[in-house]
Design goal:
This protein is an alpha/beta fold. The protein has two domains: about 1-90 and about 215-285, Bordetella uptake gene, domain 1 (D-Maltodextrin-Binding Protein, domain 2); about 95-190, D-Maltodextrin-Binding Protein, domain 2. It is about 40% helix and about 15% strand. The chain has a five-stranded mixed sheet, with helices on both faces. A four-stranded antiparallel sheet has the order 3-10-4-11, with helices on both faces. Helix 1 (about 10-25) packs across helix 8 and helix 3 (about 65-70) packs across helix 10 (about 265-285).
Length: about 290
């Protein structure tokens, strides 16, 4: 299982969890091979060019779709060179604001932003990061104008949000949930299409008056193009089954994630929607690769 990112992060933890449990169900050792570099392109290209025999898989994340919209040329076709196996899980983001902002709901925030175009600042961990895309999608869907303040990392962005130097942010729960619980930030909504188990009382942006909004970090399993359907089916069933285990769901929850275990067809449609979403956002933002 090629993990096209560095060892030790949240996505790597998911890769190792799935590999460990998949080894048990297949009766064969599944090894995680970290191949970071070039925005996940190096590791992804390895899988695109691997034999289509089910022995080489890709643990894909959002960057797979981001790169499709960001780079005019890639050494592989992000859609055509892979067989979707399953959407493993989703990691929500949260819409949070500084407590001094006179808003209690998402609709309050939208009304406030529309009344003062450009006056609100939103923080991100940098241009092209997940928090950047998440906020730009919110601007697009909610038809509001907020000013982007990019930082060189999520920690400083959250620190300045707590200090009130910026007003709004859409970070992952792991980056800001402690500040929410301490009352230093106000949580308005989550970004997934459905409410999360970890925060069942927090509404989604979609149900809060931003129809069609969905933004998640996701983890999925891809195989090389032309991997035989029986192999894809076996892998999908095994992964979907292991995701039902309580210990697996608990460990995914530790990464603020929700297990999915979709069919290949569902994951294919999900990827197409992600390709379209990021392609649109890249053009909207005017991003260009470094």
């Amino acid at each position: 299982m090629v993990a096209p990112f560095s060892a030790g992060g949240g996505a790597d933890s998911v890769a190792r969890l799935v590999a460990e449990k998949l080894s048990d169900s297949l009766g064969k050792q599944v090894v995680v091979d970290n191949r970071p570099g070039a925005s996940n392109i190096i590791g992804t290209d390895i899988v695109a060019k691997a034999p289509a025999d089910g022995y080489t898989l890709l643990l894909a994340i959002n960057n797979h779709a981001i790169n499709a919209g960001l780079f005019a040329r890639l050494p592989y076709d992000p859609e055509k060179d892979f067989e979707p196996v399953t959407l493993i899980g989703l990691n929500p983001f949260m819409l949070v604001v500084h407590p001094s902002l006179p808003v209690k709901t998402v609709q309050d925030l939208i009304s406030y932003a529309r009344a003062k175009p450009g006056a609100l600042n939103y923080a991100s961990a940098g241009n092209g990061t997940a928090a950047h895309f998440a906020a730009e999608l919110f601007k697009l869907k909610a038809k509001v104008n907020m000013t982007h303040v990019p930082y060189k990392g999520v920690s400083q962005a959250v620190i300045d949000l707590v200090a009130g130097s910026v007003h709004v942010m859409i970070p992952s729960p792991g980056s800001a949930i402690a500040q929410v619980k301490a009352g230093r930030l106000k949580l308005l909504a989550v970004t997934t299409s459905q409410r999360t188990r970890a925060m069942p009382d927090v509404p989604t942006l979609d149900e809060s008056g931003v129809p069609g909004y969905e933004f998640s970090n996701w983890w999925g399993l891809l195989a090389p193009r032309r991997t035989p359907a029986p192999i894809v089916s076996r892998l999908q069933k095994d992964v979907a089954q292991l995701l039902q285990a309580k210990d697996v769901q608990a460990r995914l929850g530790g990464e603020n994630g929700e297990a999915v275990g979709s069919t290949p067809a569902y994951f294919r449609d999900y990827l197409r929607a992600e390709f379209e979403k990021y392609s649109r956002l890249v053009k909207e933002i005017g991003l260009k690769p470094d």
